[in-house]
Structure to design on (314 residues):
């Protein structure tokens, strides 16, 4: 069996560099990572500890990669993943990818060759290249991979149609600032649906990194919108707070609609578009387990529904 020293010699690097690539790929420059991974694959190297782990019987190991530190919705999807395997012999390993805009992922490149995982669930993170191990996607799609998602543009239309029925004519949108043009974010899709449904009505769009600052800018001025759709409930909460600070009443002076529907929306009485976050995690895990049982089956795409939840904010 090839050793880590053989891999280091093949790649022309130190043993410690090989170890970093396999265990902390983010700390190694991409050209070096590529050389090491190519050597690992060419030699068929399996780390000793991992070889022992692969000898276990009756237990599968699944990774879940998501931007947990950036989006509360990702944690709720993980709850659904864990619920799906609560009574099954499956270990779940969680990887935090802070930014969805960071592509490609060094971690995704190293996991298949180390043999650490039987499969992986990727949450709310666009892919440029499909991983080389069984994969299920949640809140994102890629050709040839199993996926579960919602129609964000439809969610934007739901919000717009509700506000139009309430008689509004001046509209606002508050969304998270786009970090990269390499992918279309959920906020962009929600805005597209919102804009389409409004069909030429007055629309002020603000993309911001800070909910309160963006909301204040949106609600300041004589022609301020009387209705605001925010791309998630945290941003919607910023709109409600900014309105109160500016002496505006919600919903008498400005109606506010969010997106997600969780404890925050319930506590604030937000009207919001509910997406089935926990259900998406459960479905993603089910898709992956089925993929592990039937590797050659055709890829499946599952679309989950959205629902407008009416509360006191508009």
């Amino acid at each position: 069996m090839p050793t880590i020293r053989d891999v280091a010699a093949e790649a022309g690097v130190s043993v410690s560099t090989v170890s970093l690539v396999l265990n902390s790929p983010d700390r190694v420059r991409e050209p070096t990572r590529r050389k090491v991974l190519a050597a690992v694959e060419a030699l068929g190297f399996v780390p000793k500890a991992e070889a022992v782990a692969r000898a276990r019987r009756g237990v599968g190991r699944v990774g879940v990669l998501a931007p947990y530190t950036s989006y509360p919705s990702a944690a709720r999807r993980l709850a659904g993943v864990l619920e799906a395997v609560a009574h099954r012999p499956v270990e779940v390993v969680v990887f935090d990818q802070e930014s969805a805009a960071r592509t490609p992922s060094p971690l995704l490149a190293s996991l298949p060759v180390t043999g650490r995982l039987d499969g992986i669930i990727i949450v709310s993170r666009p892919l440029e290249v499909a991983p080389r191990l069984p994969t299920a996607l949640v809140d994102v799609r890629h050709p040839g991979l199993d996926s579960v998602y919602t129609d964000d543009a439809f969610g934007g239309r739901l919000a717009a149609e509700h506000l139009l029925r309430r008689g509004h004519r001046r509209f606002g949108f508050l969304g998270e600032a786009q970090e990269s043009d390499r992918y279309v974010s959920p906020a962009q899709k929600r805005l597209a649906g919102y804009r389409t449904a409004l069909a030429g009505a007055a629309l002020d769009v603000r993309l911001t990194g800070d909910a309160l600052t963006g909301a204040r800018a949106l609600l300041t001025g004589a022609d301020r919108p009387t209705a605001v759709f925010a791309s998630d409930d945290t941003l919607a909460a910023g709109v409600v707070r900014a309105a109160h600070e500016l002496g505006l009443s919600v919903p008498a002076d400005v109606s506010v609609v969010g997106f997600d529907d969780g404890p925050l929306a319930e506590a604030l009485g937000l009207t919001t578009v509910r997406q089935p976050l926990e259900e998406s995690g459960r479905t993603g895990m089910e898709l992956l387990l089925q993929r592990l049982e039937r590797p050659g089956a055709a890829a499946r795409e599952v679309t989950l529904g959205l629902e407008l939840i009416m509360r006191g904010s508009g």
The chain has twelve helices and twelve strands. The radius of gyration is 23 Å.
